[in-house]
Structures are given as C-alpha cells and as structure tokens.
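haha ok so turns out i had the wrong file open the whole time. this is the CORRECT one, sorry everyone. sequence first:
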Amino acid sequence: MPNSKHIDPSRQLSDVRYEIRGQLARRAQELERQGYEIISLNIGNPGLFGFRTPETMRLAMIENLAASEPYCNQKGIFPAREAVVMQQQGRGVMEVTAEQVFMGNGVSELIDLTLRALLDTGDEVLIPSPDYPLWTAATVLNGGRAVYYPCRESRSFMPDPDEVEALVSERTRAIVVINPNNPTGAVYSRECLEGLARIAEKHGLVMLSDEIYDQMVYPGAEFVPMATLCRQTLCGTFSGLSKVYRACGYRVGWVAFSGALDRAQEYLSAMDLLAALRLCSNVPGQWAVQTALGGYQSIQRLCSPGGRLYESRQAIIDAVDASPFLYLEPPRGSMYAFVGVNTGFFPDFDDETFALELLEQQHVLVAPGSSFNTQYRDHFRITTLPDRVLLAEVFKRIHAVLEPMARAAKKLEFV
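then structure:
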C-alpha cells in the first residue's frame, strides 16, 4: 500500500503573505476563465496598459543575443554593472566600483539574497508600514523578524525618525527604506532621509534603500538618493529596469553597495557566494542596462504635465475628490495611489471584504491596504497605469459598490 501521509508545506511559510498575487488574484483568474473581463489594478505592470520598453533597449538585447548564451560572471556582465557605477557617480557616490554591484533577476531576487547574507535567526529588520510585502516575506524566510515603523498618513506617509530609532534593539541589523514609496506614492524629504541615515550610522545598521521608482516623481517632489546621505555605514541601493523603463518581463535589477565598504568585506563576500550559487541572472536583459541608464530618460516626460502617468494620477485625484466615500494623500511618486475609505459612512469597513465584493460584482481587482502590513483596514491600493477613460470607469464601479454599502450602514443606525 502506498503511504498516504499528508504533505505539509514548510512551517517557515506560516507568516509569509503576498496578497497582491494571492487569493483575490486567483479568484480573478477563475472569473476570467468563465469569460469575464477583469480590470486588474492590483500590480504595477506597465506592459498590460500599453506602455512599451524603449526601442533602444530592445535593440541592445537583440544585437547581443549571441553573447547571451553562456553563463556570465555571477555579479553580472561588466557593461551593465559599469552603467550602474556611472549612474551612482553621477549622483555623487564616488566609491562604488563594478565589484560592489550585483545584477539580479529583478530587485525581488536581490532582496532575498541581501537578507540571506545578513541575517541570523532572530535578527530584526526595521521595515516601513505600509510596506512592500516582499521585504517582510524575505526577512521571515531568512530567519529574521520584521519590526514595523509607522509611516502615518498625517505625515504624508513619511516616517518619524524618532519613532524609528525607538524600535532599534540589540538584534536590529538593518533599516529598509522604500523611496519613492510603494504602496503610498510618498517621496521622502531630504530631512527625513537624513534622519534615517543618522540612525543607521549611529547604531551600525545596514541601510537597504529600495529605489526602484527613483525617477518616477511628479512636479514638486524631489528624489534624494539615500547613498548620498548614508556614508558612515553600509548602504545598499536597489533599482532596476522594470518600472522606470517599463521592462518588467526582462527581470533585471541591481543592488549597488556604498558607504563603509571597508567594514563590509566579509558580508560582500557572502553576497558573492550566494550570487555564485544561483550561477548568474538573466543575461539577455542585462545588455539593455547600459542603453537604459545612458539614454534618453522618457520617464520624465511621462511624469510631467501632459504625460500619461501625470494625467492618470490627476484623474485618480479628481475622482477621489468627487467622491464622498473616499480620500487620498496624493501620490508624489511611483505608480500607485493608496486610497482611503471614509469610515464615517462605513463604521465596519473591511478592506478585504470590499475588494472581494468589487471583484465579484464589478470585476475590478484592487489590493487591500492590509496586504501591505498595516494595522488598519480602510485603504486599498490601485496602480496609476490605466488611462483616464479606464480610470473613470473604475471609479464608477467602485462607487457602485460603496453606495449600497453606505445606504445599508445608514439604515442600521436607525434600527
């Protein structure tokens, strides 16, 4: 008789969540198989909304396909790493060389490798709340503990450095900063970033700065690279091709280390070991990096008045302003809006219940705010990638779900 013992998953996964592609997304796929058209706003995937990767990047890959068949160096091809070095030096970070740059299969892989090289069981990582949940997942999967510092809406979703420092313990190893921010669209001020940098330097913490949306900022906002402020401890700067260059499927990201490199040689050697164990990252996509970073930065046009991303962002702001049920801290960067729901109309509002009803009734897929490790459940995140026409339809459908909920809640008040 065959053994019928149940096959259980690893207990390490018990605290790992990634609802952006979780149960709601799976239900959306089921509805699509039944023939329904779903408006998927749960992830920032530019190619699904008509954005194209710059043609020069595609040509760079095609012209180098013959050189893409062997494995490359575990850190990545030299032209790609050197292009990152040139970008960093152009920003005033002069100590970086190609040896401190690691290419990966997207920033996602590098987040995992960076934390795997750093953490022992029980070590703590300071992570913003709301967060991009991959940071929490990678921390937990590598034996660490995520400690959340609040990014309050009353502060335009920027953290208070004093509150962050109060969370530092003997087990704290790193601070994670996501700027421009996913999911809130916040762009941190220089003063805020300087405060976080001083905390990392004072306590000898590794600064991990997720800057995948570095050039995706709107008028009035200034992006300040963390590596220009954090010099007396190790700083890892993460970026890639997926968002600014609309090349998600290329799966090309990088992390560049700067700051106190002399005190981090063993750690960087551990990173090199882990990079070698996965052999190398996707080679064809790496050939697009030099062209991307050195060429015309079309993202600036897209984020300026008249540009597609600017106009979509404004359409969301206008739609929220016109709704009695919603409110919004206008995003200053990235490709997301973190929309709040007026609980005065919905005292028992639950973001996951709302997201499921919106999907089932109106075939619109959003990400519940609590998916981003918040302690509150009255927000949802949408991407700003659709055009104005589609966004108008989206908010019409959102209103179609919220209005009956508000009427029902009002009736209950008089029962």
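The chain has two domains: 12-52+300-413, 55-294.
again sry for the mixup
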